[in-house]
Design a protein that fits this description.
Layout (H helix, E strand, L loop, with lengths): L1 H28 L3 E5 L12 E11 L2 E4 L6 E3 L4 E6 L5 E9 L2 E9 L6 E6 L5 E2 L9 E3 L4 E2 L3
């Protein structure tokens, strides 16, 4: 009986260890996510009045580089920023600044000479889209939320 208990305990500890390793791997594979909170966003409750921006990346001639989960932030009234040294040695900065009913999102990197494109995904409803994207200066605003057909 004692031997069966020890064997069962050993198996449980091994499974727990595998589960922890799997969860750690999943966490390390997450990409950057920004959640912007504002009463002017569509939705019926405080939890729904958000805009989720994820899958942030930059692209060089060598390919696309997804920004890591380190750049995950929840922004409402106060500015938020984060900086991270990427595997290739460049330092990436993200700044989100609330401005009235809008949010200014700024992406930058040092060095940036080989960056040909920045990108992100916006979790928008089918009946809305966003204006104010200025990819040249690498700044985006969530201002000008418009309905479909505009």
């Amino acid at each position: 009986m004692f031997r069966k208990s020890i064997t069962c305990l050993t198996v449980c500890l091994a499974l727990l260890s595998l589960l922890r390793a799997a969860n750690s791997q999943v966490e390390s594979n997450r990409s950057a996510t920004l959640v912007l909170r504002s009463p002017v966003l569509a939705g019926s409750g405080p939890a729904e009045r958000t805009l989720k921006i994820d899958d942030l990346f930059f692209e060089t001639a060598k390919g696309r580089v997804t920004l890591p989960a380190h750049f995950t932030g929840d922004v409402a009234r106060n500015p938020w920023s984060s900086q991270w040294k990427m595997d290739d040695g460049r330092v990436v900065d993200i700044k989100v600044t609330p401005r009235g009913q809008n949010f200014m999102i700024e992406l930058s990197a040092k060095p940036d000479a080989d960056i040909v494109r920045w990108g992100l995904s916006v979790d928008a409803r089918e009946d809305e889209y966003y204006t104010g994207l200025d990819g040249t200066s690498r700044r985006w605003t969530t201002g000008g939320i418009m309905g479909a057909g505009n």
